[in-house]
Write a structure and sequence with these properties.
Radius of gyration: 15 Å
Number of helices: 3
Largest sheet: 4 strands, antiparallel
Number of strands: 7
Strand order of the largest sheet: 2-3-6-7
Strand content: 35-45%
Structural class: alpha+beta
Shape: globular
Length: 126
């Protein structure tokens, strides 16, 4: 559970610093949700843009069991809320690129790989 919480703290820190480094370090190279986040923040950084807001608050966290599409050692249900995400571009007014989200749930698929924990995938709870 703690590693899934850490993932969202790293995700939040990436928004705060505009740097996907922490998420990149703890994610599988095959994690599609992680790769979208990493490439988006990297593109923002490369274009000298800035992401503001988007800060995350974790409301709940619990392990769950069942049959899932992704193979992992654990599946963690993370309930969270997120501020709207704003993109600042030089010479342009700030743009809201993602609306605020309340009471959202994501599943974090976590496995022990090569002597460390790794996020295998992150997906919306269905």
């Amino acid at each position: 559970m703690f590693f899934a919480k850490y993932y969202f703290q790293a995700f939040d820190w990436g928004y705060a610093t505009n740097d996907p480094y922490l998420v990149r370090r703890i994610s599988s190279s095959k994690c599609s949700a992680c790769n979208v986040y990493i490439s988006t923040l990297q593109r923002v950084k490369d274009r000298n843009e800035t992401v503001r807001a988007g800060r995350i608050v974790i409301d709940s966290i619990s392990p769950i069991t069942g049959s899932f599409r992704f193979k992992s050692d654990y599946v963690i249900d993370v309930g969270l809320s997120e501020e709207r995400v704003i993109l600042d571009r030089v010479g342009h007014p700030p743009q809201v690129v993602a609306a605020a989200i309340k009471d959202n749930h994501s599943l974090v698929f976590v496995s022990w790989v090569h002597r460390h924990w790794q996020v295998i995938e992150v997906g919306a709870k269905r």
